[in-house]
Predict the 3D structure of the following.
Amino acid sequence: MGLPGALPVLNSKVIKCAVMLGLALNCKLSLSSKFDRKQYFYPDLPKGYQISQFDIPIATNGFIDVDLPLEFGGGHRRFGITRVHMEEDAGKLLHTGSGSYSQVDLNRAGVPLLEIVSEPDMRTGIEAAEYAAELQRVVRYLGVSNGNMQEGSLRCDVNVSIRPIGQLEFGTKVEIKNLNSFSAMSRAIDFEIARQAELYNQGQADEIVQETRLWEEGAQKTVTMRKKEGLADYRYFPEPDLPEVVLTEEYVNGIRDSLPELPEMKRRRYEEMGLTMQDVLFLANDVNVAEFFDATIAKVPDIKLAANWIMGDIAAYMKNEKLSINEIKLSPQELSELIASIKSGTISGKIGKEILLELMEKGGTVKGLIEEKDLVQIVDPVEIEKIIDKVIANNPKQLEQYRGGKTKLQGFFAGQVMKESKGKANPGLVNKILIEKLNAKS
Amino acid sequence: MGSRALLLLTPAFRSDRVLLSHFTKCGFHQTFRQKEKMVRLGAREFSVHSSLERPNVARLAETARISLTPQEAEEFAPKIQKVVDWFGQLQDVDLQSIEPAIRPDTEAGSFREDSPETFDNREAIIAAIPSYEEPYIKVPKVLNKD
């Protein structure tokens, strides 16, 4: 709150997070870095300056690898990371629409943040949106942030410029604020590219000025917010109240060794396992889903089946019930048990699907449910034959129709057999024996 | 706020602009008067204008949000210049063989754990807010950060 006499104290965790993120983004770490005061006046900045890192940030010169979504053509991209630095948050300023005053909430003022600046390597809205999505994945994987844009845990501003093909020098850049989602970011960038291109085409390229524009979600366009008159003069000087940030090789190596497998590494590993790109992108997107998948295939290495269950029935259930994979009652161990039971023929695939639902809703074990509900598949041909004989005997009319040429009725008989056996008869065997029996007496 | 005057003349500092101390409006005249005394006691004129930029008092006042009449700005300019020159003595130091420090003082720092602490006397803080509209602080409407 800028109270006289109050001094800032550095939170040790932000240093750890900065190092984790710097390493994850393949940056060079500054073993010695400092804080600076960025001075300007604004109602949400009680001290009149923001503690930040100006010329010696904690991490510089990194990169991030990204896989573009398949629906936009797919492909790999590598985007440069200029820097990662630590700074403090300002308060939150709310404008009351009408009225001659605004309101300030200082609860988040002073909370440490990490700012990530990218190289101007993206060329379309999609590339930028995927870059941001990958950053979100990385910070979630690392546990550095929950990366929720709606909560303000992840905030993005973009700068857009265009230049004629062949020109090396970048054009005038325009900043866009008020982006609340990755898709808004993508649309705003594409709009801005088109707006600037149109001005060029009309011979009005000099109307593109360095300014900040707001993205209006309703109107789907950017509008002028304020024009920057040259660069702001923040009068940076080193923050005297905070110490130098010194990292030892040991400290950094310790963190490097404890980094989890990052999304890019997971995607490459899943690709090598033989999963399709579609599976890879889905499974590696959420670190919890990836862990669930890894745990499942550790026990029963049927990768394709595990992937299908997770991407299909389980994902659908999670979406309907609005649950995360950690919240459903099914455990990876039970999923692998389910897969094993189906593979061994203990239960049929159809029964497996039914059990899955109960396992997700109520938990329990596969073995337990099979026993409790008597779900073991009937694979004894003699048993099946008995049921088939019974069904045929009970349906003489359909039998005649079948023998008369209506071979489609095989489905009817099969259905009756399944009903009689409470779904336990092995479908393959049923059809084999059924065909024999139905065609026998003709 | 423990604000201290810092003049950075080390090569490591990127800006070639000399930064004056962070004068607050009330402290300005007082602090300035003290420095003036010190300069007079030394009875020397320091003419080390060399690489130090002349202070643009009008612009400094603008960025610091201190209102000065053009006359006051003119009055203060040479006085501020004298302070700058006095500090300018540091330029005579031979720094050829010295590694630039990234910031003054080499004290190792203290850190805090990342655990929240509740402050006991919120009422006192709230009582000190000039214009409070629970739970927000009321401020004049400002749209531009300039």
